[in-house]
Amino acid sequence: MAASLEELEQRLSQLRTELRGAVRARDKAETARIRGALREAEAVWEQALESEAGPDGEALLTEPSPPQAPATAGEPHRGEPRRKERPTHGSIPIREQVHQALTLLGAPASPKLISSAYEAFFTESLVATKLASLRRDEERSFTAQGYARPYYICAALTHDRLVPARGLLALSTWPVERRIIGPLSPRADFLTHTVGTAEQIQRLTTAGHPAPEAAWRLLRRFALTIPGAYDAAAPELDPARVIAAARAEAAVHQQEDDQQRQSAAQRACAQLADAQQLFGAAPMRDALRDASGTLS
Questions:
Q1: Residue 152's closest CA among 10, 59, 277?
Q2: What is the predicted pLDDT for the residue at 82?
Q3: Which residue, 14, 61, 63, 67, is the most exposed by fewest CB within 10 angstroms?
Protein backbone atom coordinates (compact mmCIF):
# COMPACT_ATOMS: atom_id res chain seq x y z
CA MET A 1 0.00 0.00 0.00
CA ALA A 2 1.25 3.49 -0.88
CA ALA A 3 2.29 5.63 2.07
CA SER A 4 -0.03 8.45 3.10
CA LEU A 5 1.01 12.10 2.99
CA GLU A 6 1.30 12.08 6.78
CA GLU A 7 3.61 9.05 6.72
CA LEU A 8 5.72 10.61 3.97
CA GLU A 9 6.00 13.88 5.89
CA GLN A 10 7.12 11.96 8.97
CA ARG A 11 9.71 10.19 6.80
CA LEU A 12 10.93 13.55 5.44
CA SER A 13 11.23 14.95 8.96
CA GLN A 14 13.19 11.88 10.07
CA LEU A 15 15.56 12.12 7.11
CA ARG A 16 16.20 15.82 7.72
CA THR A 17 17.04 15.08 11.35
CA GLU A 18 19.43 12.32 10.25
CA LEU A 19 20.95 14.65 7.66
CA ARG A 20 21.72 17.32 10.26
CA GLY A 21 23.42 14.67 12.40
CA ALA A 22 25.52 13.40 9.50
CA VAL A 23 26.57 16.94 8.53
CA ARG A 24 27.58 17.75 12.10
CA ALA A 25 29.55 14.48 12.26
CA ARG A 26 31.26 15.40 8.95
CA ASP A 27 30.38 11.95 7.60
CA LYS A 28 30.42 12.66 3.86
CA ALA A 29 29.34 9.20 2.77
CA GLU A 30 26.36 9.12 5.11
CA THR A 31 25.47 12.72 4.19
CA ALA A 32 25.42 11.83 0.50
CA ARG A 33 23.32 8.72 1.14
CA ILE A 34 20.74 10.60 3.22
CA ARG A 35 20.54 13.44 0.71
CA GLY A 36 19.76 10.90 -2.02
CA ALA A 37 17.08 9.31 0.13
CA LEU A 38 15.69 12.75 0.95
CA ARG A 39 15.44 13.69 -2.75
CA GLU A 40 13.62 10.42 -3.48
CA ALA A 41 11.23 10.91 -0.56
CA GLU A 42 10.50 14.49 -1.64
CA ALA A 43 9.68 13.28 -5.17
CA VAL A 44 7.28 10.66 -3.76
CA TRP A 45 5.72 13.33 -1.50
CA GLU A 46 5.15 15.60 -4.52
CA GLN A 47 3.47 12.75 -6.43
CA ALA A 48 1.28 11.87 -3.45
CA LEU A 49 0.27 15.52 -3.04
CA GLU A 50 -0.74 15.74 -6.70
CA SER A 51 -2.69 12.47 -6.48
CA GLU A 52 -4.56 13.65 -3.40
CA ALA A 53 -5.48 16.91 -5.13
CA GLY A 54 -7.24 14.98 -7.91
CA PRO A 55 -7.87 16.14 -11.47
CA ASP A 56 -9.19 19.52 -10.37
CA GLY A 57 -6.65 20.14 -7.60
CA GLU A 58 -4.50 23.22 -7.37
CA ALA A 59 -1.25 21.30 -6.94
CA LEU A 60 -1.37 19.45 -10.25
CA LEU A 61 1.12 20.56 -12.85
CA THR A 62 -1.23 19.16 -15.46
CA GLU A 63 -4.17 21.18 -14.24
CA PRO A 64 -6.70 20.97 -17.09
CA SER A 65 -8.25 24.01 -18.65
CA PRO A 66 -12.04 24.19 -18.66
CA PRO A 67 -13.55 22.64 -21.80
CA GLN A 68 -13.99 25.13 -24.59
CA ALA A 69 -17.31 25.94 -26.13
CA PRO A 70 -17.62 25.22 -29.86
CA ALA A 71 -16.20 28.02 -31.99
CA THR A 72 -18.73 30.36 -33.53
CA ALA A 73 -18.43 32.90 -36.29
CA GLY A 74 -15.91 35.58 -35.39
CA GLU A 75 -14.23 33.47 -32.68
CA PRO A 76 -10.79 31.88 -33.07
CA HIS A 77 -10.73 28.10 -33.33
CA ARG A 78 -8.36 27.85 -30.34
CA GLY A 79 -9.30 30.78 -28.16
CA GLU A 80 -8.37 31.58 -24.60
CA PRO A 81 -10.46 29.30 -22.34
CA ARG A 82 -12.79 30.90 -19.86
CA ARG A 83 -11.24 30.87 -16.43
CA LYS A 84 -13.19 30.74 -13.24
CA GLU A 85 -12.60 33.57 -10.83
CA ARG A 86 -11.23 32.76 -7.41
CA PRO A 87 -11.56 34.79 -4.22
CA THR A 88 -8.38 36.51 -3.11
CA HIS A 89 -8.33 34.65 0.20
CA GLY A 90 -8.07 31.34 -1.70
CA SER A 91 -4.96 32.31 -3.66
CA ILE A 92 -2.06 29.87 -3.90
CA PRO A 93 1.03 31.05 -1.95
CA ILE A 94 3.56 32.63 -4.27
CA ARG A 95 6.32 30.13 -3.39
CA GLU A 96 4.03 27.30 -4.52
CA GLN A 97 3.27 29.15 -7.75
CA VAL A 98 7.00 29.53 -8.40
CA HIS A 99 7.59 25.87 -7.54
CA GLN A 100 4.97 24.77 -10.07
CA ALA A 101 6.35 27.01 -12.81
CA LEU A 102 9.98 25.96 -12.25
CA THR A 103 8.99 22.28 -12.14
CA LEU A 104 7.30 22.74 -15.50
CA LEU A 105 10.24 24.66 -17.02
CA GLY A 106 12.83 22.24 -15.65
CA ALA A 107 15.75 24.68 -15.33
CA PRO A 108 16.65 27.97 -13.59
CA ALA A 109 14.57 30.85 -14.89
CA SER A 110 14.01 34.58 -14.50
CA PRO A 111 11.03 35.99 -12.59
CA LYS A 112 9.52 37.22 -15.85
CA LEU A 113 9.66 33.78 -17.47
CA ILE A 114 8.40 32.10 -14.30
CA SER A 115 5.43 34.47 -14.28
CA SER A 116 4.74 33.91 -17.99
CA ALA A 117 4.91 30.12 -17.67
CA TYR A 118 2.65 30.02 -14.63
CA GLU A 119 0.04 32.30 -16.15
CA ALA A 120 0.14 30.33 -19.41
CA PHE A 121 -0.99 27.10 -17.77
CA PHE A 122 -2.69 27.95 -14.48
CA THR A 123 -5.72 29.98 -13.49
CA GLU A 124 -4.14 32.68 -11.32
CA SER A 125 -1.73 35.47 -12.08
CA LEU A 126 1.81 35.54 -10.70
CA VAL A 127 3.18 39.05 -10.28
CA ALA A 128 6.88 38.94 -11.18
CA THR A 129 7.73 41.91 -8.95
CA LYS A 130 6.67 39.89 -5.90
CA LEU A 131 9.54 37.50 -6.52
CA ALA A 132 12.15 40.13 -5.66
CA SER A 133 12.17 39.31 -1.95
CA LEU A 134 11.14 35.64 -2.19
CA ARG A 135 14.66 34.21 -2.43
CA ARG A 136 15.82 36.26 0.58
CA ASP A 137 12.81 35.07 2.58
CA GLU A 138 13.59 31.47 1.61
CA GLU A 139 17.24 31.89 2.64
CA ARG A 140 16.23 33.28 6.04
CA SER A 141 13.84 30.35 6.52
CA PHE A 142 16.50 27.78 5.59
CA THR A 143 19.08 29.43 7.86
CA ALA A 144 16.64 29.28 10.77
CA GLN A 145 15.08 25.86 10.16
CA GLY A 146 17.36 23.87 7.87
CA TYR A 147 15.57 21.25 5.78
CA ALA A 148 12.21 21.82 7.46
CA ARG A 149 10.36 22.28 4.17
CA PRO A 150 10.06 19.81 1.29
CA TYR A 151 11.63 22.38 -1.03
CA TYR A 152 13.03 25.92 -1.12
CA ILE A 153 13.09 28.50 -3.87
CA CYS A 154 16.81 29.13 -4.13
CA ALA A 155 19.43 30.64 -6.42
CA ALA A 156 21.18 29.48 -9.53
CA LEU A 157 24.97 29.74 -9.02
CA THR A 158 27.65 31.12 -11.33
CA HIS A 159 30.13 28.45 -12.40
CA ASP A 160 33.24 30.50 -11.62
CA ARG A 161 32.56 32.31 -8.34
CA LEU A 162 29.66 30.19 -7.02
CA VAL A 163 27.71 33.34 -6.18
CA PRO A 164 24.00 33.82 -6.97
CA ALA A 165 23.43 34.20 -10.71
CA ARG A 166 21.72 37.53 -11.17
CA GLY A 167 17.96 37.26 -11.65
CA LEU A 168 17.68 33.45 -11.82
CA LEU A 169 15.69 31.25 -9.44
CA ALA A 170 15.92 27.48 -9.00
CA LEU A 171 14.63 24.66 -6.78
CA SER A 172 16.52 23.20 -3.83
CA THR A 173 15.44 19.69 -4.86
CA TRP A 174 17.52 19.93 -8.05
CA PRO A 175 21.11 18.63 -7.82
CA VAL A 176 23.78 21.32 -7.58
CA GLU A 177 25.00 20.84 -11.16
CA ARG A 178 21.49 21.55 -12.45
CA ARG A 179 21.58 24.91 -10.68
CA ILE A 180 25.01 25.93 -12.00
CA ILE A 181 25.14 28.54 -14.79
CA GLY A 182 28.16 28.15 -17.07
CA PRO A 183 28.98 29.88 -20.37
CA LEU A 184 26.73 27.54 -22.37
CA SER A 185 24.02 27.11 -19.72
CA PRO A 186 21.70 30.00 -20.69
CA ARG A 187 21.08 28.45 -24.11
CA ALA A 188 20.93 24.91 -22.73
CA ASP A 189 18.40 25.99 -20.12
CA PHE A 190 16.38 27.85 -22.75
CA LEU A 191 16.09 24.59 -24.68
CA THR A 192 15.06 22.79 -21.49
CA HIS A 193 12.35 25.42 -20.92
CA THR A 194 11.14 24.82 -24.46
CA VAL A 195 10.91 21.06 -24.02
CA GLY A 196 9.12 21.43 -20.67
CA THR A 197 6.54 23.79 -22.16
CA ALA A 198 5.92 21.59 -25.22
CA GLU A 199 5.60 18.45 -23.08
CA GLN A 200 3.05 20.16 -20.83
CA ILE A 201 0.96 21.08 -23.87
CA GLN A 202 1.17 17.46 -25.04
CA ARG A 203 0.02 16.18 -21.63
CA LEU A 204 -2.98 18.47 -21.65
CA THR A 205 -3.87 17.53 -25.22
CA THR A 206 -3.55 13.80 -24.49
CA ALA A 207 -5.84 14.24 -21.48
CA GLY A 208 -8.46 15.87 -23.70
CA HIS A 209 -7.99 19.39 -22.31
CA PRO A 210 -6.91 21.92 -24.97
CA ALA A 211 -3.96 23.99 -23.80
CA PRO A 212 -4.69 27.69 -23.21
CA GLU A 213 -3.79 30.07 -26.02
CA ALA A 214 -1.23 31.71 -23.70
CA ALA A 215 0.63 28.39 -23.53
CA TRP A 216 0.77 28.18 -27.34
CA ARG A 217 2.05 31.76 -27.50
CA LEU A 218 4.82 30.93 -25.04
CA LEU A 219 5.84 27.85 -27.02
CA ARG A 220 5.77 29.86 -30.26
CA ARG A 221 8.16 32.41 -28.74
CA PHE A 222 10.57 29.60 -27.90
CA ALA A 223 10.22 27.82 -31.23
CA LEU A 224 10.96 30.87 -33.38
CA THR A 225 14.59 30.88 -32.18
CA ILE A 226 15.28 27.13 -32.60
CA PRO A 227 16.35 25.85 -36.03
CA GLY A 228 13.84 23.38 -37.43
CA ALA A 229 11.26 23.89 -34.68
CA TYR A 230 8.90 26.14 -36.57
CA ASP A 231 7.30 25.37 -39.91
CA ALA A 232 5.84 28.58 -41.29
CA ALA A 233 3.82 26.62 -43.84
CA ALA A 234 2.08 24.46 -41.23
CA PRO A 235 -1.33 25.62 -40.00
CA GLU A 236 -0.42 24.98 -36.34
CA LEU A 237 2.70 24.61 -34.23
CA ASP A 238 3.65 20.97 -33.61
CA PRO A 239 4.91 20.37 -30.02
CA ALA A 240 6.59 17.10 -31.06
CA ARG A 241 8.54 18.91 -33.77
CA VAL A 242 9.59 21.61 -31.30
CA ILE A 243 10.78 19.01 -28.78
CA ALA A 244 12.81 17.16 -31.42
CA ALA A 245 14.44 20.37 -32.67
CA ALA A 246 15.24 21.57 -29.13
CA ARG A 247 16.80 18.25 -28.17
CA ALA A 248 18.83 18.15 -31.38
CA GLU A 249 20.36 21.54 -30.63
CA ALA A 250 20.83 20.70 -26.95
CA ALA A 251 22.90 17.66 -27.90
CA VAL A 252 25.44 19.98 -29.55
CA HIS A 253 26.12 21.81 -26.28
CA GLN A 254 25.43 19.08 -23.75
CA GLN A 255 28.81 17.45 -23.23
CA GLU A 256 30.76 20.67 -22.71
CA ASP A 257 27.99 22.28 -20.64
CA ASP A 258 27.66 19.19 -18.44
CA GLN A 259 31.42 19.10 -17.82
CA GLN A 260 31.50 22.76 -16.77
CA ARG A 261 28.49 22.35 -14.50
CA GLN A 262 29.78 19.18 -12.87
CA SER A 263 33.21 20.66 -12.25
CA ALA A 264 31.65 23.71 -10.58
CA ALA A 265 29.25 21.50 -8.61
CA GLN A 266 32.15 19.49 -7.22
CA ARG A 267 33.84 22.69 -6.05
CA ALA A 268 30.57 23.90 -4.52
CA CYS A 269 30.06 20.68 -2.56
CA ALA A 270 33.66 20.76 -1.34
CA GLN A 271 33.85 24.46 -0.44
CA LEU A 272 30.36 25.62 0.51
CA ALA A 273 28.09 24.95 3.46
CA ASP A 274 24.56 23.69 2.80
CA ALA A 275 23.01 27.15 2.82
CA GLN A 276 25.66 28.47 0.44
CA GLN A 277 25.09 25.55 -1.94
CA LEU A 278 21.46 26.66 -2.18
CA PHE A 279 21.79 30.44 -2.04
CA GLY A 280 25.37 31.05 -3.15
CA ALA A 281 28.58 32.24 -1.56
CA ALA A 282 28.55 35.88 -0.49
CA PRO A 283 29.79 38.13 -3.30
CA MET A 284 33.05 39.94 -2.54
CA ARG A 285 31.20 43.24 -2.09
CA ASP A 286 29.07 41.73 0.69
CA ALA A 287 32.08 40.01 2.24
CA LEU A 288 33.94 43.33 2.49
CA ARG A 289 30.91 44.98 4.06
CA ASP A 290 30.52 42.15 6.59
CA ALA A 291 34.20 42.28 7.53
CA SER A 292 34.49 46.03 8.03
CA GLY A 293 30.95 47.14 8.76
CA THR A 294 31.21 49.62 5.88
CA LEU A 295 32.10 49.49 2.23
CA SER A 296 34.98 51.67 1.18
A1: 277
A2: 40
A3: 67
